């Protein structure tokens, strides 16, 4: 909260509303944001959702529940009447807090909510969220971490009492809840997806889309469907993953907190910051000659541009054809081939794609060895695209359940391949998401799909490539049957920006502002002691004929007078010759140790770790090298697993709580969920 200059000074309020434990797991990030906004005249509220973090009550029954939104209304009402508040509240956030900002603005519309800022937030909870990517089951570290952290005791006391046991520890795992709803034809997904309520979004709305984020379509879908009745919508598409632009992953980013202040100053303080005089759209167009290996973990060359219309009026569609000889041609063939290209299903293929349509993927040439690929001629001029690439395929399969993955790629002269964009179609949804049905073997089907939003410039001497797969492991849970698919014909429509328009672009000033050192506070009561790099390892077992992808991460830190260790790992394994036999195992562990020395640091290898200045840590166990008999400690372990066969998913969740080294609570859930078109 800012310090008032006089007893009558009042301030607007920013609200971020999450289940991500503001007092420990997200303490550092929250401190930086609150410090930044309070220095600029905002009361900054971070609120844990009911039954999570430091908030009381029974853990909410699911993501974005009515309880969450009901509470959100009450929180906004109370913030608006707070004595130092001017009555104007702005919601903001990334991911979850962006999602519920949109929901509050669309479905609840409390009078005090004057504007929102939503980054990487989806309009579609089934097709464009983490559980069913483009309609196919997906499991990753989020599924583990959200269940695990929401079973931890409430901060700041971390009491293990009857309320904790009933309200958190014994609550039903969300993993099982989402496996009950494997298709989009139920109200479960629709009731809080704002795509069914666009007409209600009427307050000022600032949207951020990340070119390397899985949710990047959402901002454009919202803008397209809202702009006609709401002239107060802004959109930025930046070259970032699931982070804010200022985090530069990979970048180039900009000082997005400064942009948030400019937005909220206009709507919550009634200051003319000029933000509404700027064009609605700011889009970063990628333009690099680097190979994917050269560009990994570096800012991607290109430029930010203003756009005044969406879709961009000057776009010209360029149609290309997938033809015999694995060619991608601008010339329409005389007739569709009667001799289709055939693809054998290998359920373990796809590891180079990492875990979906977000993030940096690196060179894709190895993966393309197992795909149907169609290459253009070597380009004699650049091709710049901005928008959604539309694809039509004529296909067949010899089984009843098949997924088709389509990717647009850039082939560098050195042979390396960059993933530009992609999407997929669950074969059960060919006739629509709301009408899933099994395929008829060997019947020809027409698939139409829109690849995820992209910007890209194909350079001279490069080639365009369309790559088609039936497996995308580990991003997608493999479909259960051995199969062969056939491709008879295909087209692709590219949204091309004509080269003669490139002299008219204006670079937005706000994208050139960078965060300065004075905007990064020193957090005196928190120290990051050790952080393990997130890793994706692929393990091939030639005896058992399996492929496993493994992910691990750990963070050890001190906050005030206690130590917190977080460990997380998962493995996803598929059998090569039984695609239905898939196993996902995951383990998370959180350790708290109280009464450590203030401002402690990590010991070097030559220090004892027994002084008041530094701490040694057993990296494997996560425990510090301290006398734990004289200190309170608490540990929660959560293990999740999903196994599948052709008919079912079998889940097992186990929670174990340790206090001072002694096991005090154990609970286990086992469920069987029939496969439903997955």
TrEMBL record:
Annotated SMART domains: PepX_C
InterPro entries xref list: AB_hydrolase_fold (IPR029058), CocE/Ser_esterase (IPR005674), Galactose-bd-like_sf (IPR008979), Xaa-Pro-like_dom (IPR000383), Xaa-Pro_dipept_C (IPR013736)
UniProt keyword list: Hydrolase
Pfam families xrefs: Peptidase_S15 (PF02129), PepX_C (PF08530)
Transmembrane segments: none
MF GO annotations: dipeptidyl-peptidase activity
Domain Xaa-Pro dipeptidyl-peptidase C-terminal: 261-498
Protein name in UniProt: Xaa-Pro dipeptidyl-peptidase C-terminal domain-containing protein
Organism in which the protein naturally occurs: Didymodactylos carnosus
Lineage, broadest ranks: Eukaryota, Metazoa, Spiralia, Gnathifera, Rotifera
């Amino acid at each position: 909260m800012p310090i008032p200059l006089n007893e009558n000074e009042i301030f607007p309020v920013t609200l971020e509303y999450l289940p991500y434990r503001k007092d420990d797991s997200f303490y550092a990030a929250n401190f930086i944001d609150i410090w930044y906004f309070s220095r600029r005249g905002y009361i900054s509220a971070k609120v844990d959702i009911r039954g999570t973090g430091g908030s009381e009550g029974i853990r909410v029954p699911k993501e974005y529940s009515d309880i969450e939104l009901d509470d959100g209304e009450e929180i906004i009402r109370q913030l608006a009447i707070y004595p130092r508040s001017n009555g104007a509240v702005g919601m903001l956030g990334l991911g979850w807090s962006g999602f519920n900002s949109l929901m509050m603005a669309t479905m609840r519309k409390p009078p005090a909510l004057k504007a929102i800022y939503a980054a990487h937030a989806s309009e579609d909870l089934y097709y464009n969220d983490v559980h069913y990517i483009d309609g196919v089951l997906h499991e990753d570290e989020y599924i583990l971490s959200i269940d695990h952290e929401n079973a931890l005791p409430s901060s700041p006391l971390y009491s293990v009492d009857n309320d904790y046991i009933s309200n958190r520890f014994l609550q039903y795992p969300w993993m099982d809840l989402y496996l009950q709803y494997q298709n989009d034809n139920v109200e479960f997904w629709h009731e809080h997806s704002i795509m069914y309520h666009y007409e209600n979004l009427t307050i000022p709305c600032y949207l951020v889309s990340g070119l390397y984020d899985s949710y990047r379509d959402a901002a454009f879908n919202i803008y397209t469907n809202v702009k006609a009745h709401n002239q107060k919508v802004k959109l930025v598409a930046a070259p970032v993953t699931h982070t804010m632009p200022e985090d530069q992953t990979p970048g180039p980013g900009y000082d997005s907190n400064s942009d948030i202040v400019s937005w909220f100053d206009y709507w919550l303080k009634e200051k003319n910051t000029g933000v509404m005089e700027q064009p609605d759209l700011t889009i970063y167009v990628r333009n690099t000659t680097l190979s994917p290996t050269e560009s990994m973990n570096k800012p991607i060359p290109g430029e930010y541009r203003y756009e005044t219309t969406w879709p961009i009026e000057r776009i010209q569609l360029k149609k290309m054809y997938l033809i015999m000889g694995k060619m991608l041609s601008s010339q329409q063939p005389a007739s569709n081939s009667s001799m289709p290209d055939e693809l054998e299903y290998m359920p373990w293929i796809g590891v180079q794609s990492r875990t979906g349509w977000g993030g940096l993927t690196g060179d894709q040439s190895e993966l393309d060895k197992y795909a149907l690929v169609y290459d253009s001629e070597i380009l004699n001029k650049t091709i710049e695209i901005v928008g959604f690439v539309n694809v039509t395929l004529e296909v067949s399969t010899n089984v009843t359940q098949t997924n088709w993955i389509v990717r647009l790629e850039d082939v560098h002269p050195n042979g390396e391949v960059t993933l530009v964009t992609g999407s997929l179609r669950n074969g059960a949804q060919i006739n629509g998401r709301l009408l899933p049905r099994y395929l008829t073997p060997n019947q020809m089907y027409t698939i139409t799909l829109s690849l995820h939003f992209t910007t890209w410039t194909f350079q001279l001497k490069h080639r365009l490539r369309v790559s088609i797969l039936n497996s995308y492991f580990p991003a997608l849970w493999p479909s259960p049957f051995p199969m062969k698919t056939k491709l008879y014909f295909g087209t692709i429509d590219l949204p091309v920006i004509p080269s003669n328009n490139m002299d008219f672009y204006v670079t937005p000033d706000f994208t050139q502002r960078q965060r300065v050192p004075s905007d990064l506070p020193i957090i005196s009561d928190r120290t990051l002691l050790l952080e393990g790099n997130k890793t994706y390892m692929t393990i091939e077992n030639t005896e058992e004929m399996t492929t496993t992808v493994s992910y691990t991460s750990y963070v050890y830190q001190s906050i005030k007078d206690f130590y917190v260790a977080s460990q997380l790992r998962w493995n996803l394994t598929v059998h090569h010759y039984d695609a239905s036999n898939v196993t996902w195992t995951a383990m998370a562990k959180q350790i708290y140790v109280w009464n450590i020395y203030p401002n402690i640091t990590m010991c070097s290898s030559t220090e004892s770790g027994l002084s008041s200045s530094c701490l040694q840590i057993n990296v494997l166990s996560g425990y510090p090298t301290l006398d734990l008999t004289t200190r309170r400690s608490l540990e929660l372990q959560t293990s999740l697993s999903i196994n599948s066969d052709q008919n079912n998913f079998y889940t097992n969740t186990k929670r174990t709580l340790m206090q001072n080294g002694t096991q005090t609570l154990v609970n286990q859930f086992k469920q069987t969920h029939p496969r439903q078109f997955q």
